[in-house]
Amino acid sequence: MLDLEKWKLDQQKNINIWFETLGHIEALNSFAILHFNEPAWVFPDLISGNFFIEAKEIGHPLISKNTRVNNSVKINDNEEIMLVTGSNMAGKSTYLRSIGVNVVLAMAGAPVCAKDFKVSHVQLISSMRITDNLAESTSTFYAELKKLKIIIEKVNKGEKVFILLDEILRGTNSLDRHTGSVALIKQLIKHKAAAIIATHDLELAKLKDDYPENIINYHFDVQVSNDELFFDYLLKPGVCTSLNASILMKKIGIEL
Fold first, then answer.
1. Alpha helix ranges (H) inside the chain
2. For the chain, give me the number of helices (H) and strands (E)?
3. Tens digit of pLDDT for each residue in 229-245?
């Protein structure tokens, strides 16, 4: 009994190291299982230097491969902002999540759901699924502002970050939302931040005229036939020209 107590006293300083090592083993084991279960996934190429990402046929890992629609992404430098416009339900948010999840997997050293994946070492930061908090008396809009504050502070400090934003400032009126979105995008360009921004605000795409070297416009569209909507979920260059909100509103009984 005394020997056991002595051993515990001698080894207590190593307990944290043991648990950390066990955690690493469990993580590596999970990556190995993932690679075994998904042999078509690839291991990413991690690149040094300025921010860079290029992925071919990237998909969301949690969507069945039988229904998943894959897309590609390429951002060449720190100062590039990809604006993704599109109709409701066309695939903008899923596209951002697909990129985000796979970047996290890549940074961890795991295989990614893509045909080819190259990315530089980077900190991923996002503002996507924002909710209010009654306990903290925080509205959806203020919750998003707090998230954007974190992003802005990192950008202003010159930290190497890759930003994913879904519908900036959705919780306020259209005028303030547009004004704030334009100001934020200009600030990201000023501080050489790389970002992908999904938005319904087609006016933001006009920033390409003022920043042709920094703004890249892409979109998801919808085909309409006899008031029925058809989505292909494929990313295309340019600005979205097809809208579907009015059709959806009519379908639920709003008399437009």
1. 2-11, 15-37, 92-108, 140-156, 174-190, 207-210, 245-251
2. 7, 12
3. 788 999 999 998 877 77
Q: Would 256 be classed as within a structural domain?
A: no
Residue 49 is classified by DSSP as S
Count of structural domains, the chain = 2
Q: What is the pLDDT of residues 141-190, one digit of tens each?
A: 878 888 899 999 999 998 889 999 998 888 788 888 899 999 999 999 99
- The boundaries of the domain holding residue 7 are 1-37
Task: End-to-end CA distance of the chain: give it in Å, rounded.
Answer: 82
CATH number at residue 144: 3.40.50.300
Q: Are the CB atoms for 197 and 99 separated by under 8 Å?
A: no
User: Do 18 and 56 have their domain in common?
Assistant: no
Phi-psi category of 196—alpha, beta or left, where left has phi over 0 and alpha has psi -120 to 50?
beta
- The pLDDT value recorded for residue 133 is 76
